[in-house]
Amino acid sequence: MTNLQLEVLEQRFRLRPDVELIDGADGAPMLFDALSGRYVRLGRQAAQIVRNLDGTVSGADIADRISEHSGVARSTIDPQLARLFSELSASGIFEGHEAKSTTAKDRVAKAVGRTPTWTRPLLKDGLTRLVEPVSEVLRATPSLVRLLAATALMGLALPFSINAVRGYTLPITALPWLLGMALMFTQTVFHELGHAVSCRVHGVKPRELGLALWYGVVPIAYVDRTDAYRVRSRGARAAISIIGPVQDVIWSGIWALLAMNTTGLAHEATLAATVLALTMTVVNLNPLLPTDGQQALEAALGELNMRGRAMAYLAHVVLRAELPTYLMHLTRRRKTVYVVYGAACLAYVVFVMGGMAWWLGSLALRMTGAL
Ligand SMILES: [Zn+2]
């Protein structure tokens, strides 16, 4: 580290007034930037340091204090502290220091951990008002009763949908499947509202409801539940995610029940919807994609953004880019977990994208051949 990089320790930083230090998920300290709406997770030591920054102490003062308490030499402390201050300063959370763009390698490494999604918000403040009546009733219900009710409803629905799919001949024309997809769209809106309700039940505000294209191609409805980072309980955070697949199972039962009691096109469309609802449930439990199931599992294990971190760690190692401080002090076991899980996630994305490209390519070939 050069003297120029160590100079950051001479500055006296202070958090911007709209940046708040909170105890978030699992009690992990986080900075919340009200301007960008983003959360920055901090290590316990980093949080302790940030707490001391009131604009009068410099990084060097803090290095002195740490050195006094721990007996570790300033020459060891300074480079690490300088890295931390540079990163925090670059994230734009300090007064008078704008967010800085990073190197191309860092940007690539960061982008790998994210899911590229095109989004269009439809409902913002109105969303909370819309889901409040249902949320209020559920808030007044004990969580054990909610859990038992959800399990019972799934237990009722699943035999119906599985029997319907196995017992009837599936439609072979396009129209029932198109209608089934339209029914699925209605279902996804309720699915997403379920996430919003669950957010309200656990005391956070869903930010918005909108439409999105996952990886630029797969159309989905979404609810922005970023603020679930504020929910400290693992169980509650898992519930906010898993309510989606739970609802999908219940919906599959509803479609199956309709398929059993209708004939003609209505029967075929609801049967198609049953198949699609079951498929969606399974896909939405995939632990290698940022699905509801993956997020519920992460929450239950007390992890935060594990998939993103694992992929970012792997990308930094492969690109030989400098590790950000939050990825620097990992145990050996954690490094292995990140490399294995990150590689599996990346491989899966490549596999799906490759499959989709192959399918689109062969479709294009067939269509041009038919012309
Ligand atoms: Zn969902």
Summarize the structure.
The chain is built from 13 helices and six strands.
Task: Write up this protein.
This protein is 61% helix and 9% strand. With 371 residues, it is mostly helical. The protein folds into three domains: 3-100, Outer Surface Protein A, domain 3, CATH 3.90.930; 117-306, no CATH class; 313-370, no CATH class. The strands form two sheets. Strands 1-2-3 form a three-stranded antiparallel beta sheet, covered by helices on one side. It has a three-stranded antiparallel beta sheet with strand order 4-5-6. A hairpin with a 5-residue loop joins strand 1 (19-23) and strand 2 (29-33). Helix 6 (125-139) crosses helix 8 (174-201), helix 8 packs antiparallel against helix 9 (234-260) and helix 12 (306-319) crosses helix 13. It is elongated, with a radius of gyration of 25 Å. The structure holds zinc ion. The site of zinc ion has 4 residues, from helix 8.
Report the biggest beta sheet as strand number plus sense, adding barrel if it closes: 3 strands, antiparallel
Task: List all distinct small molecules, including ions and cofactors, that are bound in this structure.
Answer: zinc ion
- Could you give the distance between the termini? 64 Å
- The Cα radius of gyration reads 25 Å
| Residues in helix, % | 55-70%
Shape: elongated
| Strand order within the widest beta sheet | 1-2-3
Instruction: Tally the helices.
Output: 13
Strand content: 5-15%
Number of β-strand runs: 6
Low-confidence stretches: none
Structural class comes to mainly alpha
In round numbers, the mean pLDDT is: 85
How many domains? The number is: 3
Order of helices and strands: HEEEHHHHEHHHEEHHHHH
